[in-house]
């Protein structure tokens, strides 16, 4: 029987080095430079998938019988668990204050009425939609009206609510390079049983992977504008629902994720619907937590809907103080 080798030769050392690099990227991904082709943002967009590198490295280490490589593989495994292991845990039981559904319904959705019915079946308190076309809007309104009598639509985004809406306005999150007629954001105050909350619905610009790199400049600019709007929001409790065209690990969304709580449980990969690889449909909260997020079955869209629970910090209330906090 062949013996296990300490380093496993040159190939064993290479395997150990690859394991260390994988662990370093998982742990210190913010240090990956973004200059040029925005490599750092691209890595962060698919960061959980780096865990898949452990499997082939493990097989290679076993074939090489390299003890050093096997020990080194503990580092990326532990780094991945530290970063994403909590998302795998069962949802926490207990009371919550709000249930919300977020869905990019797709501007070519062949069945808007069926999509609306599927979302309402999840019994949320709020329903946020993006890519709502003028031709499909009547179908969404007709199906959702009985359960959600309060609604607002600005451009291609809409919000349907069980509770009264006030202070509805369009959000100016349009990047400077985009022409007129682009309207993808709204803000509304919702009068819930726990008090008033501010709800933001947004659809940030798409990103593309090109030969020159990760094209996220427009998305990043829009995220900065949206982050500034949330920062200036006078109502303490805030919910952000939207297709942000980025994951919560992506540094391009830092103007939002640095100010708001992200989901604690559930990967809820939402795009593309046929084979989801990333959650770009987000539910974020300020002065509260998002203890659980999950996907709903596919609709006629190229995105999967996500449903999330939100709980509020007991110390926060509906009325801001003189500083707007």
Automatic annotation (TrEMBL):
User: Which spans of this chain does the record mark as coiled coil?
Assistant: none
For this UniProt record, the keywords arranged alphabetically read as follows: Endonuclease, Hydrolase, Membrane, Nuclease, Transmembrane, Transmembrane helix
Domain of life from the UniProt record: Bacteria
Among the GO molecular function terms of this UniProt record, one is: endonuclease activity
Q: Which InterPro entries match?
A: Endo/exonu/phosph_ase_sf, Endo/exonuclease/phosphatase
Q: Which parts of the chain span the membrane according to its record? A: 46-63, 70-89
List, for all copies, the residue spans of the domain called Endonuclease/exonuclease/phosphatase: 102-303
Full protein name: Endonuclease
Origin organism is Streptomyces amritsarensis
């Amino acid at each position: 029987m062949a013996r296990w080798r300490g380093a496993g030769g040159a190939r064993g050392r290479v395997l150990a080095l690859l394991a260390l690099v994988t662990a370093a990227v998982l742990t210190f991904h913010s240090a990956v430079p973004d200059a040029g082709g925005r490599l750092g943002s691209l890595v962060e967009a698919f960061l959980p998938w780096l865990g898949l590198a452990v499997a082939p490295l493990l097989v290679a280490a076993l074939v090489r019988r390299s003890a050093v490589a096997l020990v080194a593989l503990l580092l990326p495994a532990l780094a991945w668990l530290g970063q994403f292991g909590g998302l795998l845990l069962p949802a926490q039981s207990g009371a919550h204050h709000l249930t919300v559904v977020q869905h990019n319904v797709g501007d070519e959705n062949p069945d808007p009425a069926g999509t609306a019915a599927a979302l309402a079946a999840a019994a949320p308190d709020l329903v946020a939609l993006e890519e709502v076309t003028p031709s499909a809007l009547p179908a969404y309104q007709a199906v959702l009206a009985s359960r959600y009598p309060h609604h607002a639509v600005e451009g291609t985004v809409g919000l349907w609510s069980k509770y009264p809406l006030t202070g509805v306005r369009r959000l100016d999150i349009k990047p400077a390079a985009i022409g007129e007629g682009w309207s993808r954001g709204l803000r509304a105050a919702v009068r819930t049983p726990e008090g008033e909350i501010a709800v933001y619905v947004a659809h940030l610009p798409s990103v593309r992977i090109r030969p020159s790199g990760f094209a996220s400049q427009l998305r990043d600019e829009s995220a900065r504008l949206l982050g500034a709007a949330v920062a200036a929001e006078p109502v303490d409790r805030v919910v952000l629902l939207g297709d942000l065209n980025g994951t919560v690990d992506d540094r391009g969304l830092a103007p939002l994720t640095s100010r708001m709580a992200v989901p604690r449980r559930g990967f809820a990969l939402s795009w593309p619907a046929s084979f989801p690889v990333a959650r770009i449909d987000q539910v974020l909260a300020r002065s509260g937590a998002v203890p659980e997020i999950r996907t709903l079955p596919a609709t006629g869209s190229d995105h999967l809907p996500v449903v999330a629970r939100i709980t509020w910090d007991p110390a926060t209330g509906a009325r801001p103080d003189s500083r707007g906090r």
